[in-house]
Amino acid sequence: MKFKITKIETVKGSHRLYVDVAFLDGGKIVHRNDFVMQIALTHCEYVGRVGPDGEQLDKGEQYFETRDTDVAAEIVANIRRYAERADMKRVDNRDPDISTEDTDPLGLRAKEGVADLIGAEMPAEVAA
Amino acid sequence: MTTLNLQVAASSDDADEVSDGTMDLTSVNISLTAAAQWGGLRWNNVTVPQGATIDTGTLQISIPSTDYDDVYVDVYGEDEDDPGTFTTDNSNISGRTPTTAKKSVSAAGVGTGWYSITVTDPVQEIVNRGGFASGNDLVLIMDAQTSISLRFKAYDGDSGLAAKLDIDYTAAGAAGLPVVSGEGIHSLVFGGVTVR
To answer: Which positions in chain A touch B52 (Cβ < 8 Å)?
Structure first.
């Protein structure tokens, strides 16, 4: 089973990504699903009570690092989790209330590798 | 079907509660190491239409250590239309009203990394509430059971590893469109009836 992302847009009036996906078996589309993804541009990770240069921090102080989110990897991971649990019915029931727009308010679509996902065929399962 | 991928997005939107009711909103892990402890998780802006069919609800937690990977827990929803974030008020998780539906998990030594718990029924019960509306918030309540030894990443430990909620749903009145391949139309669905 493979999948191909056919569209990445933004849910109208939100910061969430709209991702339209076709699942293929033997080159034929067997299932479609659309996703509304809440993905943060960065994430903050607790490192400890030692500063970035190894210095011991004062009591009560903690050191956190802010890192960029790999948005493309998050998109693919969300789709693969779906592929793992879904039964791939041969119908396409979309939520008719979802509207999308060609915007990028957080810069998620501009992140490295995101645009390259559109049209590429990728394995739906994670390699063992 | 449509899938909504959510993640806890604020420090006070995950918390744990020890047996005397004391709340902890800022630890790096949600820690459940004895019965009578509670975990609470909240997701914002759940854009699922009221009354939609929940095909699957999946809670994902990130377990950092095999020292605390024994999952013995009952997972409920909070039986509220639009529940608020957690506070330091005593028993702010156990004092919330749970759904009737729950998911019981008994699994020892599940290992590190993302761990999935199916929570379809509690999510369905919340979405079925007459006062639920698309865009409301949703809370899951974790009731620790005997033998539990579980820690998983909180928003304050790594916001990228905070708890996730995946909801696969079918909106009432969603159009059943055929999938067309090289072999032509395989099926049509009208009002839930599949015609091949």
So the answer is: 95
Q: Where exactly are the structural domains of chain B?
A: 2-195
Total-model pTM: 0.90
DSSP string, B27-91: -SEEEE-STT-EEEEEEEEE---TT-EEEEEEEEEEE--GGGEEEEEEEEEE--SSPPPP-SSTT
Secondary structure class of A46 (helix, strand, coil): strand
Question: What ipTM is given for this predicted complex?
Answer: 0.91
A89 contacts in chain B (CB < 8 Å):
1
| Per-domain boundaries in chain A | 2-40+69-116
Average pLDDT per run of 10 along chain B, which is 196 residues long? 96 97 96 96 98 96 97 98 98 98 98 98 98 98 96 96 97 59 45 46
Interface residue of B43, B116, B159, B164 to substitute, partner A, most A CBs within 10 Å: B159
Hey, which CATH number is domain B2-195, 2.40.33, 2.60.120, 2.60.40, 3.40.50? 2.60.120
- Mark yes or no for CB contact A90/B186 under 8 Å: yes
Place of tokens 């159009």: B175
